[in-house]
Amino acid sequence: DPDSGDNGVLLYSLVNHQTNEFDIDQKTGQIFTVSVAGKAGTFYLEVQAEDQGMRRLTAQTTVNVTVDSSSSSNIVVVVLNQQINVVERNIVEVKRVLEDKLEWNVYVVDVSSDEFQISARSSTDETNVKITAFDEAHQEVPAPDVKRSV
Question: What domain count does the chain have?
């Protein structure tokens, strides 16, 4: 947005939160996965950008996301001592911290908690984040190497 001040600040959102598989960083518009384990196919996400001016101008577009099935044996589970709703809200930061620590690109495959308590979204303080890591050549890093580096 070429405007200045509040008119130039854009906030991004998924319209009607159509899916639990994806979320969006409201400041950057980056779409990321929350949980796509065991899922494949094309997802159609309605994304809205809204400026913060008095008239709140908006624009919407459809983003097509294709998820390939994965049979990777290099998935690593990172256990965080945080409630699942906190991890889900901060997944972009979790990913960034893991990438800084590992010095590889990280793909978050799934975020989960104890399945009997998941409906409360905040009842347990332990969350599992399944990841795979990729090196500079875009090759999957073997799980034992990732585990040693975490």
Answer: 2
Q: What are the start-end ranges of the E strands in 15-125?
A: 22-24, 31-33, 41-51, 58-67, 76-80, 105-112
Exposure string over 27-54, b if 16+ CB within 10 A, otherwise e = eeeebebbbbeeeeeebebebbebbeee
- Provide the 10 A C-beta neighbour count for residue 120: 13
**pTM for this prediction:** 0.54
The burial of 20, by beta-carbon neighbours within 10 Å (0-12 exposed, 13-18 middle, 19 or more buried), is given as exposed
Residues 38 and 100 in one domain: no
Query: Do residues 106 and 128 share a domain?
Result: yes
Residue span of the structural domain in which 28 resides: 5-67
pLDDT at 119 (0 to 100): 47
Shared domain check, 143 and 87: yes
pLDDT along the chain (150 residues), means of 10: 70 84 88 76 90 87 80 86 90 94 92 61 74 89 91
Order of strands across the sheet that contains 127-134: 76-80, 127-134, 105-112
Coil vs helix vs strand at 74: coil
